[in-house]
Amino acid sequence: MPRHHQKKSSVPGGGSQRQLRVGEQVRHAMADILAQGNVHDADLEGHIITVPEVRMSPDLKLATVYVMPLGGRDTDIVIAALERNKKFLRGEVARRVNLKFAPDIRFRVDERFDEAERIEKLLRTPAVQKDLEQDSKQDLEQDPETDREEER
Q1: What is the average pLDDT value for the chain, to the nearest integer?
Q2: How far apart are CA 53 and CA 12, in angstroms?
Q3: Span 48-59, mean pLDDT?
Q4: Alpha helices (runs of H) in the chain, residue ranges in sequence order
Q5: Burial readout 89-114 (b: 16 or more C-beta within 10 A, e: otherwise)
Q6: Which residues contact 97 (CB under 8 A, 6 or more apart)?
Q7: How far apart, in whole angstroms, are the C-alpha atoms of residue 46 and residue 78?
Q8: pTM
Q9: Mean local confidence (pLDDT), 53-68
Q10: Which residue(s) pair with 63 in the sheet?
Q11: Where is the sequence biased in composition, kind Basic and acidic residues (predicted)?
């Protein structure tokens, strides 16, 4: 079958296997650069920045770097500082990751932590706790149909 007629297999997490692999390499490089303090910017010096994910475009020419300052504070200041130092960071990533083209970099705040906290708060609300208790009581009560199936 000609190559252009084949279906592309989608990998969980978005992107091809190659995109995921290169994204992980760029993530490691970016995390090392930020951890070593190679970026000399007054706004970044007081922050510890985590890089939980990097998503690559299909042509590997654009890297979206998701970052989160420790404690989740001053995110706007950190993103602005990273944007100011984008050219330096791109050069450092190009030196550390062997690619034909150095990917253009854009920075985004990783909001998964906020979303997880919001869901956790929802699960702790009295209405949800009441529903969970009712579900567990129903699970404990045995269904007569299920008992007959087990006897066979």
Answers
A1: 80
A2: 14
A3: 92
A4: 17-36, 42-45, 75-84, 86-96, 112-123, 126-140, 144-151
A5: beebbeeebeeeebbebebebbeeee
A6: 22, 25, 26, 29
A7: 10
A8: 0.67
A9: 93
A10: 56, 105
A11: 130-140
Q: Which helix (H) or strand (E) holds 51?
A: strand 49-56
Q: Which residue do the tokens 């706004």 mark?
A: 43
Quick one: pLDDT at residue 11? 43
Residue 11 CB partners (closer than 8 Å, separation 6+): 17, 20
The domain at 17-110 falls in which architecture? 2-Layer Sandwich (3.30)
Cα 95 to Cα 25, 63, 88: the distances in Å are 12, 15, 11
- Which of the four pLDDT bands, split at 50, 70 and 90, describes residue 134? confident
DSSP state, residue 2: -
The pLDDT score that the predictor gives to residue 19 is: 92
Q: Which two tokens stand for residue 110?
A: 């990783």
Query: Which residues, 6+ apart, have CB-to-CB distance to 109 below 8 Å?
Result: 66, 67, 68, 75, 79
